[in-house]
Each structure stands twice: as C-alpha cells, then as structure tokens.
UniProtKB/TrEMBL annotation:
<keyword id="KW-0067">ATP-binding</keyword>
<keyword id="KW-0436">Ligase</keyword>
<dbReference type="InterPro" id="IPR011761">
    <property type="entry name" value="ATP-grasp"/>
</dbReference>
<dbReference type="Pfam" id="PF13535">
    <property type="entry name" value="ATP-grasp_4"/>
</dbReference>
<protein>
    <submittedName>
        <fullName>ATP-grasp domain-containing protein</fullName>
    </submittedName>
</protein>
<dbReference type="InterPro" id="IPR040570">
    <property type="entry name" value="LAL_C2"/>
</dbReference>
<dbReference type="InterPro" id="IPR052032">
    <property type="entry name" value="ATP-dep_AA_Ligase"/>
</dbReference>
<dbReference type="Pfam" id="PF18603">
    <property type="entry name" value="LAL_C2"/>
</dbReference>
<feature type="domain" description="ATP-grasp">
    <location>
        <begin position="128"/>
        <end position="318"/>
    </location>
</feature>
<keyword id="KW-0547">Nucleotide-binding</keyword>
Length: 415
C-alpha cells in the first residue's frame, strides 16, 4: 500500500513486555502499521524500553511513559498534542495497558473502548456480575478480603472452587480447592496481599474465541480448543485452531460471545474470550479486550491466509475500507504445544533442532539450555518452550504439534 502524502499517526500505548511473545506481536504490529504508511510513536516504561531495543528501533518515535500510573498516558498525550504532535489512532497490545490506552483515546477524542468498559472486563468479579445481570450463565463468585471471608463463601456454595487474583494473567495464582483445608496453600500462591476471588469450578471442556471489532461490532475469527494440565493448577499446554465443533455448537458460542462483548460495552481493537462447554451449555469465562497470547496470533495468521490482525484494527480506527467478513474465516488449521519438562536443573536438551526445523513449524521458541533451572509448572511463565505448527486440518495440526514436542528430550537433575 503506498504511503499517504499526509500519513496518519499511530500511538502504541504501553509497548510490550520483554518476552519473545510480546516482542513478536509488537514487531508485527509495527510492520503492519508501516506497510500502511503510518507513522508510529510507542510508549512504555523506561526500563522496558531499554530491554526491548528491537521494538524501539522499529518505532518511528519512542517515549518513556509509565502506563501503570493512572492518567499518566492520557496526560502525556494531551501535552504532546498541545505541542503540535498529532495522533490519529491509539492502541495497546498488552493486557495491563488497555485502561491507559482507552483513557488516552478518550482524552484525544479518538475512537476506542470506553475506559469504564475496559475497567469492567479487567476486574474479573465486576465482569461476572455484569454478564450475570444480562442473563449469561456464570459461576457463583465472591470477592474476599481474607481467608475467613473465603471460608464463609465455601459454606454457601457448591464445590470444588477456584481461587484466583482479581486482576492478573497467565494463570498466575490460580488453583483449585475442594474444601477449607486447601485455602491456606491456595491463598499463599496469590500475587500480592489484596482482595482475591473464589468462584465455583465449572465442569466442561475449555475454549477461547478470537476476534476483533470492525465498525464497532465484534467479528469472530475462530474458536480455539484449549488443553490444560490437571488441577489443582490450570496452565495451558496446548491449543488447536479452529476447534472441531458441531456447526450448531460453534454458532451458539459465537453468538453468545458477540452478545456478551456488546453488553460489556467493548467496541474497538481485538478480543479473546474464554469459556466452558458445560452440561448446561456455554458458560462464559474471562473477557479480554486484546488478542490472545500463547502464539494464537501466529496460529490465526496461518489459518486465515493473508490476515493482518493489527492492520485490520488500524484500518478500522482510521475509517479505511474493510474486507468482506466472509474472508475472515479459517481455511487451514494450526496448533501450539508447550514444552513442560519436570522441575530441576537442565543437563541436556536433545532433538530440538530437528523439531524446530520441521517444514510445517511456523514458530519455535526454546527458553532454557543446559545449566538452567526448570520451575514447577504453576503458571504459564514456567513453560520452557513452544512449537507452533500449521496443517490442513485441526486433527493433523494437533497430532503434529504433539509428535514434535514429544521428540524434544530433556535430561533434568532434581534440585
């Protein structure tokens, strides 16, 4: 696409975290902006900017702004605007910067999600309350200040239960309990000292729905099948996209997700909605106003040939022509399998080069080498690698991802 003689200016609030997944998403987002002739200005905390030089070099301009400070990003953007810098679109890539981006877009009078809607979905109990009030199936949940409040909730509800942070990601601090005796260890896993959530455990297969907003309406791109470790923890070890579901079930999932996003007030950017297929039907889980992690963006790009996730958002925010929705459906499949060796000190890794070099591997990431320590599998950050593969069908993708992951052999000494 040729550059506009008066290029639009994109502000990416909050940059990315200094991890391979975040770096990959940011580099793709910036490349797709530049392919559309956009100028880019990226903000992030000073220490993270220093730790992500490849991203900083791709951006047209970079500024140190702490998106975690309430109102800081919006105030900075107003100051820049008053000094003559023009912004035409605002976007945040990472979860923790969504509120700052919404506040900034509102302050500049630009399209974006209402800040109150973003705060609602970022606060898990508030999101559940809003969905339940609108008639969606939701597990009973209680915001608890301490163990005593949590134990009182257990006596009024049906177990088992999930203990989780009110506002976190990556399965951090999430565990399943079967009674009051399990509470001390579950609470000890939580990050920080603030209030936490206890909710009824939902029995059923887990999925997520990936999509984005075009013209203010949610557009589902795919439903993703999840595989997690056995309780008490819930770390995801694999995904397959698109999920193999009966047409009626897929349609019911997509309709519920689209209606829920509208009820919650989201209208811009990407989305990633988790859910269960319970014996009683669809039960919506956590709602995110950004694309899914775990390399789902790479899986989507293979399953939907020619898809540019971030470019579509820019086109939407800037009022540019948008594609036919029918062209935004998977015609191929992809899967990811995460490497999760037992905890201990790594002595040797065998078979990685062969697995990573398979012609159907879309992305290979290994985070450990001999001498490194593997932590017990408690959060997604404890996984040590990933293999993303593409195939013609979901079953082929699932089998290939498992075979390649199983072919990587770790020798680990207990510590």
């Amino acid at each position: 696409m040729p550059a506009d003689p008066t290029p639009a200016n994109l502000l990416l609030v909050g940059g990315v975290r200094a991890v391979p997944l975040g770096l990959d998403m940011a580099e793709l987002a910036l490349d797709q902006a530049h392919a559309r002739g956009l100028r880019t200005h990226l903000t992030n905390q000073e220490a993270v900017l220093a730790a992500t030089p490849t991203v900083a070099r791709r951006a047209g301009a970079v500024s140190a702004v702490d998106f975690t400070l309430p109102g800081e990003s919006a105030a900075w953007a107003r100051t820049q605007s008053g000094a003559g810098e023009r912004f035409d679109a605002v976007l945040a890539l990472q979860e923790m910067a969504q509120v700052a981006a919404a506040e900034t877009a509102e302050a500049l009078g630009l399209p974006g999600n209402p800040p109150e809607a973003v705060r609602r979905v970022r606060t898990k109990d508030a999101c559940r309350e809003a969905l339940a009030a609108a008639g969606f199936r939701q597990p009973a949940v209680r915001l608890c200040a301490d163990r005593a409040e949590a134990e009182a909730f257990l006596h009024t509800s049906t177990g088992p239960w999930i203990v989780k942070p009110r506002d976190a990601m990556g399965s951090t601090g999430v565990s399943r309990i079967t009674g009051p005796a399990d509470l001390p260890s579950a609470v000890a896993l939580l990050p920080g000292e603030g209030p936490f959530l206890v909710e009824e455990f939902v029995q059923g297969a887990e999925y997520s729905v990936e999509g984005l907003f075009l013209d203010g309406a949610p557009v589902v791109l795919a439903v993703t099948e999840k595989e997690k470790v056995e309780p008490p923890f819930f770390v995801e070890v694999g995904h397959v996209l698109p999920a193999e579901l009966p047409a009626a079930t897929r349609q019911e999932i997509e309709q519920q997700v689209e209606r829920a996003l509208t009820v919650l007030g989201l209208r811009s950017g990407g989305f990633h909605v988790e859910l269960w297929l319970s014996p009683d039907g669809v039960v919506l889980g956590e709602v995110h106003g950004r694309f899914g992690g775990d390399w789902i963006h790479r899986m989507l790009a293979h399953a939907v040939p020619g898809l540019e996730l971030y470019g579509l958002i820019y086109d939407d925010l800037l009022g540019r022509p948008l594609p036919d929705r029918a062209a935004l459906r998977p015609v191929r499949a992809a899967a990811v399998r995460f490497l999760t060796p037992p905890p201990g000190r790594v002595v040797a890794v065998e078979g990685w080069a062969e697995a990573a070099g398979h012609p159907d591997v879309l992305l290979a990431d290994l985070a450990v080498a001999p001498g490194d320590t593997v932590r017990p599998l408690r959060t997604s950050g404890n996984r040590v690698g990933a293999l993303v593969v593409g195939a013609d069908t979901p079953d082929q993708a699932r089998k290939l991802a498992r075979e390649l992951a199983d072919s990587v052999r770790f020798t680990v000494e207990p510590e």
